[in-house]
Queue: 4 jobs
Job 1
Amino acid sequence: MRGHNYINGQWRDSISEHTFDKHSPANTGDLVGTFPASDARDVEEAVRAARAAFPQWRGMSFIRRAEILDRFVRLVQEDFEELARLMAREGGKVLAESRADVTEGIHMTQYMVGRSRMPYGDVVPSEIAEKDSYMLRKPKGVVAAITPWNFPFAIPMWSIAPSLATGNTVVFKPSSETPGCGQKVAEYLHEAGLPAGVFNMVHGTGDDAGWPLINHPEVDVVVFTGSYGVGSKIKETVARDYRKMVACEMGGKNAIMVFDDANLDLAVNAAVTSAFRTAGQRCSAASRLIVQEGILDRFVERFLAGARRIRVGDPLDERNFMGPVINQGAVDKVLRYNQIARDEGAQVLLDGGRLSGDGYGKGYFMSPFVYLMRHNPTSRVIREEVFGPHVAIIPFKTIEEAIFIHNDVEYGLTFSVITEDYRKARRVREECEFGLGYVNLPCIGAEVQLPFGGLKKSGTGMPSAATLVDVVTHKVAWTVNHDQTIKLAQGLSAEIE
Ligand code: NAD
């Protein structure tokens, strides 16, 4: 694939003419494509195009805008399998998960298409009988969408579909680990018939293309999804510009809490799925299994049996459950945290690591690493995001202790409780800190019509997906007087004495 930037309705190379290559993490000898390495000059052109297109796009009816997104959905559906296969090859997600990622991006866009025919504001009562008051929404302007590699279609669409549908224009910078999927997003939008400048895309690294984009004075909203390290820097910088809004969705150190009364089969399946889908590289992945002591031995035995059965290999082979991690940096990071676990006194139950040899030689394949460890407020390994097939089992005695352990981390994204006792489920719902909670389910598997966003280091409190509409629109009050004289609220008079 030869990718291009998409600026003002045209396919372009970067001004510097520099490019970068993207190889498959499953086979570093497999070149997926070559893409423009953009810098501030390309960003400048993209933002200028988005700014110029804004007034006309804002002026179009919500329903007409959504009809273009509906055409986009049909194009993606026609290309569904090809896109899923590209994603598996480029990002290493196994085919079943790549298909689910494409499906989620379709759902997000369909949700916004449907919303275009739904009420879009409120009629609000007034103290004065002759006044009609409304809450209306207006688009904010130019949205910068910066996205991670691990959901290379769904997360771009979480950001792009709500922004475009509500009348904003967009400059999108896909992850340089998944530029091919970014390229496909731009191609479908182009083919769907978006007017020039409404949607623009610049390929490149975070430092060279992302940083000038978030700092551009003509950008009104920054929608960032990625790591805490990058997101916190972006939030700090963007917040200095009082006109700009920034929403950051970041990492997690998510837990599944298993009580003694749990359905054991359900608990084990939820834990294996949450810990090892996408090789543990989901913001929502479970990296802590907080398990009550009465069920601990049985849970450990069954969980380890499940983890041992995981087939790791080529993401395009339907039989595999786990593909590779994304790059050498990810391998190094997971190995480093596996060692920190040992150094911090963990009891290693499954000694995973880099896989080599038959079928693995040219990819970043890793096997699951599982350990047992008491909660310890000074431990790094059970508190920091690892983002790989690495999971701690942490025992607890009482519900109070479980809640303390759950909250004693700096993240708060997803959480799952496995219990047959609705009272326990309700108590942890109230006292645990998270953004997406589940009962008797894995802590992955979000749906687009719900808010997606966490607390603490996981997010800035402006959830994505359906609720991103609140970030990319401004709620305005609109009050109309139907009388010939002025009557004010709170008993004030407008008469001139
Ligand atoms: P990352 O933070 O390295 O990169 C995310 C995006 O930011 C990429 O497009 C990257 O190019 C860009 N970027 C990097 N440096 C930048 C800079 N200085 N200025 C502007 N942009 C910059 O994250 P990643 O490795 O792609 O994704 C994994 C991380 O994302 C994990 O921490 C995961 O938990 C998190 N994540 C969060 C959510 C969520 O909704 N909360 C969803 C998926 C992934």
Job 2
Amino acid sequence: MALRFFNTYSRELEEFHPLDPEGKIVKMYTCGPTVYSRAHIGNFRAYVFEDLLQRHLEARGFAVHRVMNLTDVDDKTIRGSRAGNLPLQEFTAPFKEAFYQDLETLQIEMAGAFPAATEERYIAAMIAMISTLIERELAYQADDKSVYYRINRFPKYGQLAHFDLAELRPTGRVKSDEYDKEHVGDFALWKAWAEEDGDVGWKSPWGRGRPGWHIECSAMAMSLLGEQLDIHCGGVDNIFPHHEAEIAQSEGCSGKAPFVRYWLHCAHLLVEGQKMSKSLGNFHTLPDLLAKGYSGREVRYSLLRVHYRAPLNFTWDGLEEARQSLARLDEWLRRLWEAARAGNLQAHQAKTIADDGFAAALDDDLNISAALGHLFEQIRESNRELDTGIDSARALSWLEWWGRINSVLALEATETKPNEQIVRMAEERARARGTRDWKKSDELRDALNALGWDVRDTKDGQLVTPRVRA
Ligand code: AMP
Ligand code: ZN
């Protein structure tokens, strides 16, 4: 089956073909976090979905050029920096750092670039775009000195969100309570400096001010990826107005359509039926969950296992299920390694297991439930083989097959090498066994178990592996 995705723009499943004439390079832009606090795992549902998408595209032979922005200037970052009495950059820096750490813990591939909105070159790009929009009468400076996008001049406005803006389109000039705008739907491209902005602001042809959030993404995407992108992602809350505005700005400037060929949006992570969000206070950060004893890959699995367009409920049971599924996976891998090592590894050659069911399921708009269903079905099958005994070569073949799947799932335990202390304890246990001191040997095994390691006695000696939790 051809690779296909559900495009928010058309509301249809469409076959995927990148713009690259050679069909190899995929230009992908993903809206990143606003760095005024630590991202919560609701945000990470979006980033894990984007990671699955990138990894699957790579597994299918595409070269993905991905950009993820960091929003480091907006109302919330300014408020935080003022409350903390810190310059904006100093206030946001630790949250950027924390974000990179969380990406690593969740095994999310690093984007090719993480541009931050306040970098001079992007501020310059935003100012240049706004100037072009004004020249084309797609934007205007209002009496409040801010610059707004004139949505009435962009007939496609509303098409991504499938909003009928007709009823919002008044004949005369409308004054909203907040702004001096021509139309209530006009959005800010440049926000004139106000008292509460403190020392945050840049010089511009329209006076001191700062960019609006939407123009940040258009400018960074186009500076780094060009005028047209293949894929743009985010959570469904980004569709309107953020992504709608990005289309209006980018196409308004470049004159090229479409700005984005495939729009992919993930449904929210919910807590008791409501979106997990900072403002509702119903959120967990990754460190919160790590402190409760869950691992990064357990959290990754729990966010990954439901189709990206289906809402996902965050529950502790969900995390427990993730733990159990991973334990099954770990136990299977341990058995395969044991079988593989039992023979002469050099003498055998793995035969590729041709089964492609996992990737084929993902080709269908990232159908992860079908893909995982297939994986666990194959694990059952291979466990049956292990029960009856398999040779080294067959075990290696399964491991090679898993390696291909893991390049997409990134769920294999990374801590597979025991540290020095563990090695010393295992050696001592081997000596105890050598002197038939069973009591000591058992005590050391229990101690190793308690530290998260399993130890097994094989004909080649001890095998120390990460402990598989039941
Ligand atoms: P923000 O920092 O609020 O701009 O959000 C960053 C990214 O996380 C955006 O793509 C949002 O759509 C996404 N996001 C925020 N909350 C959730 C949630 N509860 N579930 C899934 N995605 C979310
Ligand atoms: Zn964005």
Job 3
Amino acid sequence: MTTRFDPVEMRSRFPALAQEVHGRPLVYLDSAATSQKPRAVLDVIDEYYEHDNANVHRGIHELSRRATVAYEEARTKVARWINAADDSELVWTRGTTEAINLVAMAWGLDNVAEGDEILISVLEHHSNIVPWQILAARTKAKLRYIELDDQGRLDLSTLDEVLTERTKILAISHVSNSLGTINPVRTLAEAAHRVGAVVMVDGAQGAVHTQVDVQALGVDFYAFSGHKMCGPTGIGALWAKKELLEAMAPYQGGGEMIHIVGRDASTWASVPHKFEAGTPNIAGAVGMGAAVDFLTDVGVDSIVEHERALMEYAMDRVRAVPGITVYGPESLDERSAVISFTLGDAHPHDISTILDAEGVAVRAGHHCAQLVMKHFEVAATARASFYLYNTTDDVDRLIEGLGKVREIFA
Ligand code: C6P
């Protein structure tokens, strides 16, 4: 029997949301930066450290066995969450950033050469720009961009010009962190595969609000972070098709990733361990597995439905604020739970400071997306981002806070 989704009850499951900030009950609208963590996830991490803590894949004692089982069970949960064909296709990383760097270096250095092209977009987070710039510089490949339209959507009218027989990889975000734009990944993947390119998706904001099916998306690599989906910081994953992982050279050398070490050379462990050098973030992996359990238990459909209704309410109220400019797609079908805005002449840092004094947490700045800011000719925006624990009361408090901003800047 499924119980009706109750956002107020949901909020009460996140201990950090119970506090006051500057004398006001906290309204947390910065989940795109990192989500809050439910008690259920915190308890699993505590339990791991209190009872099972040991190194994995090394000892034969009981605690090492338990830690290894917990670590590998978490891999299975996260692999299932994105519908990987096999658990071994999921490599633990520190997060999305490390996963993208892993692809750029371990795949890129062997598969991209002078004269080749790497295709990304203007919408990308710096984590999905800079590793490709480094790869392009090392290989003398050319970095090309899909441009944006005036709503911050990918301009696909010029796709044929930028996606060519020379394109070796298309690296694209699933969902933009700065605007919330949802990209047509499946369509792009089909187009990229037609010219023989592989497709890497930055899923930092994608695997968060809905369940991702990497097989249905038809991509080759998918990178995501635990901390944006109710899990701990310092853990994330790279999913890749097994044949790609098997063909790739290791990313880092060290313990855990080897089979036999000789004086001059070594052989590698099988995938995914070939890419997991050193003691991994075991508690992080266990916590990310617990986050997947939590989201599964809440029900992805309920989360999607709740966030859609909340966004309809929030967009209507935010758009009605005099002097506000909202960036990003107009249609909620093309926008995730993010509202990026500027308000009159108020600098976004001032907006954020005034809102903070009211207990409302939003992010202000370029959101690690300086090319997006340049596209809209702004230095920064304020960004309110929503998650399953936000309520219409939170939206009302945001609007009240924006009223204060208007009073001060009137
Ligand atoms: N965006 C934000 O406030 P890491 O830091 O490795 O977990 O994720 C990096 C990253 C990559 N791609 C996208 C689309 C992202 O949103 C992020 C993280 C945060 O928007 C922190 S800058």
Job 4
Amino acid sequence: MKRFGVLTSGGDAPGMNAAIRAVVRSGIDQGWEAFGVEHGYQGLLTGEFRPMGPRDVSGIIQLGGTVLGSARSLEFKTEEGRRKAIRHLNQRGIEALVVIGGNGSQTGAYSLHQMGFPVVGVASTIDNDLVGSDITIGVDTALNIALEAIDRLKVTASSHERAFMIEVMGRNCGYLALMAGIAGGAEAICIPEFETSPETVADVIAKAYERGKKHALIVVAEGAKHGVIELEAYFKEHNERLGFDVRATTLGHVQRGGTPGAFDRLLGTRLGAMAVEQIAAGNFGVLVGQVKGTITATPHADIVDRVKPLDPKLFELANVLAK
Ligand code: ATP
């Protein structure tokens, strides 16, 4: 092994930079040359490679986002696209690649591995939907950002005796919404995994009002079956039965761009270093993640095309605590 590459792919997540830094410096410590690939898989296709020394990753551990940039690439999803990517890697003498990203990115990494290119994945997505890592890089920071917004909305909600509906990220996965809802003391939580009808949410809000609550919070995941727009329309139509006046806020990309907290910096660092250990051991086609508190490498074959289930007990607990 002489040269290896690293890229970040899919949605950016706070802590990705800590992982890049750890991968680059640990790889150099092994005596290898490090190459950063810009703009994820897209950069493999357009040949955006840059050599990276220890100083190129100085001063980035505290930055959100990814200094390598990220992108979504449709061309990479085709076999022809992946052949081109492997050609570009071979032309530069890069013998192994670290892919830092979420579900889609790891599926792409596994495809490269199946085509014979040595790849190691690092679990990073704010969705926390990857099998093979109980918690992924970026989740903790994104959750704290969502929570800070929820806490602030609760203050203004109480002052005006209003209900607030907050949309948090999660197209297919309600982890962030569920955890933010529980930690923020929400009255209702709407996530893709468990259906909650507008009637049920309205009922919960009306009951909270009748019980004399000064505020009510509804946390809605982006991908909930009945989303913010539908809920808002329903509440408008049934305004008199709710008691509260309901306002909606969408947190959107604010959740992604935060300064990574200690947890994500440490997780990014540990997973990045472990990815290099896998390369050194010749253990490819694996995802590096944290399982039951231990940094672990799980074969990509065991994790792709699977979605980590949410614990239904947590959803039930959220409903109990909303009394
Ligand atoms: P996040 O969920 O945090 O946004 P992600 O890694 O799941 O992260 P995606 O947009 O799903 O983000 O995937 C990132 C990139 O991975 C895609 O743009 C595409 O290039 C590649 N990819 C996704 N799915 C596949 C697939 N089935 N085969 C090959 N490549 C894929």
